[in-house]
Amino acid sequence: MENIFDRQQDTAWCPGCGNFGLRKIVLSAISELGLNQKNLVFVSGIGQAAKAPQYMNVHYFNGLHGRALPAATGIKIANPELTVIVESGDGDMYGEGGNHFLHSIRRNPDITVIVHNNMVYGLTKGQASPTSQKGMVTPIQVNGVFETPINPLALAISLDASFVARGAVHEQELTKELIKKAIMHKGFALIDVFQACVSFNKINTHKWFRENTYKIDDDHNPEDKIKAFELALKENPFPLGLFYINKNKIPFEENLPLYKNSKEPLYKRKNEIKNLLLSKM
Amino acid sequence: MDKKISIVLSGEAGQGIQSIEGIIVTVLKKDGYNIFATKEYMSRVRGGVNSTTIIVAENNINAYYEDVDIFIPLSDEALKRYEKKIKENTIILADNTQVHHPQITNLPIQRLASELGNTIFSNTIAAGVILGIFDASQELIDDFIKNLFQKKGEEIVNKNLEAVKIGYNIGKELKNNKVIDININKTGDKNSLLMNGADAIAIGALSGGCNACFAYPMTPSTSVFTNMANYSKNYNIAVEQVEDEIGVINMALGCWYAGGRALVTTSGGGFALMTEGLSLAGMTETPVVIHLAQRPGPATGLPTRTEQGDLNLALYAGHGVFPRMIFAPGNLKQAFELSAMAFNYADKFQIPVFILSDQYFVDTYYNISIFDTDRIKTENYIIKTIKDYKRYKITDNGISPRGIPGFGEGLVAVDSDEHDEDGRITEDLDGISLEMKNKRLRKFKEVEEAALLPVLYGDEDYKNLIVCWGSTLNVILEAVKNIANPDISVLFFQQVYPLNKSTIDFLNKAKNVIAIENNSTGQFTDLIKKITGFEIKKKILKYNGLQFSVEELTKNLKENL
Question: Any chain A CB within 8 A of the CB of B407?
């Protein structure tokens, strides 16, 4: 079946790149949900993953490196009726954009954040990313990475992010369902997605991800924050699936007084300021 | 000289200077006096010494005079910091158990407050003294006090009513006994507005269709943000304090992209963090309005002081080449109008527009006639998109009709990379990439043609021409009025970039041109030279962190004529 969101064009990605797999998954997810193309906006930063919206028939805001989240929040503020999906890489989201990541989780706008996590910088050709594992040798980290990698899931759960999941490109069905669930979830939804960088990460390959991940047991209760945090700390192998969900958080936009009673977007609203001036009399 | 009385209140941060100021300024204005007030304060929450200058005048005086007629220090420290302002005829009203100086007229406010049950009432007593001196309406005073303390319960309201009355009677006695001889008529318009620069900017922005405001708190820009937060309770405006200024500008751009009209308000260091975002506005042709309240730098500098030092920053911020507009209001009416126009121009040309103010401007109050709100219309340039909509359609004037997601049939794609008409990345250097660059360059001409005329104050036939911009306007006009030389006119730039083409004609007509700027190098003077080739050789500059006073400028101008 033809996917209206699919845009066939030359991409800037290497053959075999995990981005292709994730692109396919995202396209299926938004198509299966039957989202209205008119009201769907993708937001991205900079990097190879951040180019993903270029290759889709969608509205998009391809902004600055690390700054997708505040832009996405601004979009949601201007028009809460839009479905907003952020798609970017590990460097963009957890490195350059780290501060926005923390505070956007606290703010809890109703957006879905898909992070292509290949544990390396691709566009700049192979330097360490915030999720690179210790010991990885790169053209810059010539003696191997010594910094402790960021654990985005544990970090997100510690901040009480309202939806925290990990997918992987080799688990297409699982990841697609997680993305669908995340889009339908009201509030900030993070899906970190494992994928390989075939050109610059010779350690965390497709094979490595397959061998170092497992699906979370069905008996895990994602509403149990402590258990979710424990699960998020598990490494080698890394769990895949829905770690944590908090259904009781009010999305950011709904906390704004002007959206308390109506979701009418800003461009349709007006202000009459005469009384405001009279109050200064 | 106009009939005027200048009152200076000084005390430590936390001693309540601001609450005394609030009572005096509001009541006297409502009672029909013309009021001017400005404050200077230290960058601390407790201690230090802050002051407020209040000028009550028969004619509107909207400018800062440094001379003091009545000085009310709340502590010895407060007195010492302003000791050089004390002249022979300065009346010092103070409690001589707290403050020591031979010229003091004793106000036993500590004892009187204690008798009322708490020294906390001493501020209300002090305010009462001033109101008594000016024979203010007791009804207005009581209304104000009731309103102010209403939330704290009846007992507190009554105690404060008593306190203000005690002070009021002391003030009346001082006046009746001619200790303080004041004879200023209540010539002000009771229906005028009393506001400061921050109010005028915020209300102006709202009337220009602003419906979102994002910021990270930073003195002196925060007061505009605080106003917006207050308005958000009753008006259609989304307000959010963002984690940092980088987030602020990017949130604002996302908001504009989706149909909002966002204002960001910041000061030097905060704006420095926004410069990449500014460049993003340039590349994506997303409108944005930036209120930049200047304070002295570099770095943290003097956080609570004033300077016109960030013109160059606003002019050159952001990598790459893209058009922008910079407004610099000189009075409240201009602040109101320019802040509204900023939104219309940003939307029309799809560019960043700056409102450049400073600490002195945002913190200065006076009363003015009500603005004509009918003159300001919100202009909206958003179009409903059609199916094959192209966000960056190549056009003759460089402006591509701007659609937003969710309104129309088209897709709206914007990109920080160089892009084609569809908003998709391109590296077609001699093709669409170059065409996009040229499209953006063509907008410079459009923006330049819209540049506002400088405002000429004084006769059109002038020998001496004073060139100025931004917050110095009223002080300069007041000084020129005092000099009373018909050969001086003032050319004021409410828009400092781009410059209106007539600028050079104004300059060429004068025999003697003097630039006055509240910075150390004459940044605007340099800009004029760069754009028009005209070199202004005489510059009066001040950069110690304070605004010019009328007295010093009067003296300085006389020497330069």
Answer: yes
Considering the domain architecture, whether residues B330 and B264 belong to the same structural domain is answered as yes
Closest chain A C-alpha to B250 CA, distance in angstroms = 5
If asked whether residues B156 and B268 sit together in one domain, one would say: no
Give the residue from B147, B250, B368 with the most A CB atoms within 10 Å of its CB, the best one to mutate. B250
Partner A contacted by B194 (CB < 8 A) = yes
Residue B212 belongs to some domain of the structure: yes
pLDDT score for A114: 98
Please report the beta strands in B14-152, taking only residues with DSSP state E, as ranges in sequence order: 34-40, 47-57, 70-73, 91-94, 104-106
Checking if the pLDDT of A20 tops 60, the result is yes
Same domain? For B117 and B88 the reply is yes
Tell whether the model's pLDDT for residue A127 goes beyond 70.
yes
> Which of B330, B349, B375 represents a domain boundary (last residue)?
B375
Range of weakest confidence among A56-60, A196-200, B110-114, B373-377: B373-377
pLDDT at residue B2 above 70? no
Residues B435 and B459 reside in one and the same domain: no
Q: Which CATH number belongs to the domain containing residue B30 in this structure?
A: 3.40.920.10
Which residues from A are below 8 Å from B425, CB to CB?
12, 51, 54, 62
Supply the DSSP symbol for B484.
T
**Cβ separation of A61 and B414 shorter than 8 Å?**
yes
**Residues B430, B548 within the same domain:** no
| Closest of A125, A72, A278, A242 to residue B193, by C-alpha | A278
Q: Verify that B246 and B367 share a domain, yes or no.
A: yes
Q: Is B259 in the A-facing interface, judged by CB distances under 8 Å?
A: yes
Per-residue pLDDT, B313: 98
Q: Are strands B212-215 and B352-358 parallel, antiparallel or unpaired?
A: unpaired
Whichever domain contains B336, its CATH number is 3.40.50.970
Chain B closest-CA separation from residue A64 CA (Å): 7
Tell me whether residue B432 is in a domain.
yes
| pLDDT at A71 (0 to 100) | 98
Report the distance separating Cα B218 and Cα B545, nearest Å.
Answer: 17
* Helices of type H across B66-137: 76-81, 109-116, 122-133
Answer whether B405's CB lies under 8 Å from B260's CB: no
Asked if the structure places residue B183 within a domain, the reply is no
| Residue B238 structure tokens | 């989304």
Closest CA in chain B for residue A97: B247
Q: Where are the alpha helices (DSSP H) in B317-391?
A: 332-349, 359-363
d(Cα A49, Cα A120) in Å, to the nearest integer? 12
- Tell me the residue range of the domain where B395 lies: 389-439
- Considering the domain boundaries, does residue B286 fall inside one? yes
B318–chain A Cβ distance below 8 A for any pair: no
pLDDT in tens, A27-45: 999 999 999 999 999 999 9
Q: Which of B26, B199, B245, B257 to mutate to test the interface with A (most CBs of A within 10 A)?
A: B257
User: Which of B349, B375, B401 is the C-terminal boundary of a domain?
Assistant: B375
Q: Which residues of B touch A59 (CB under 8 A)?
A: 405-406, 411-413
pLDDT tens digit string along B495-550? 999 999 999 999 999 999 999 999 999 999 999 999 999 999 999 999 999 999 99
Q: Which residues of B touch A60 (CB under 8 A)?
A: 413-415, 423
Q: What residues of chain B lie within 8 A of the CB of A79, using their CB?
A: 258-260, 404-406
The identity of residue B281, as a single letter, is A
User: What is the arithmetic mean of pLDDT over B227-244?
Assistant: 97
Strands B512-517 and B538-541: parallel
The per-residue pLDDT for B346 is: 98
Q: Which residues pair with A40 in a beta bridge?
A: A83
How many contacts (CB atoms, under 8 Å) link A and B? 197
Residue A97's pLDDT is what?
98
Mean pLDDT value across chain B:
95
Residue A1, pLDDT > 80, answer no
Hey, are the CB atoms on A67 and B240 less than 8 Å from each other?
A: no
Instruction: List the domains of chain A with CATH numbers.
Output: 18-278 (3.40.50.970)
Q: Are residues B406 and B504 in the same domain?
A: no
Residues 6+ positions from B114 with CB-CB distance below 8 Å: none
pLDDT in tens, B124-139: 999 999 999 999 999 9
A103 vs B416: CB contact, 8 Å cut-off? Answer: no
The verdict on B535 touching A (C-beta cutoff 8 Å) is: no
**B251 has a chain A CB within 8 A of its CB:** yes
Count how many domains chain B has. Answer: 4
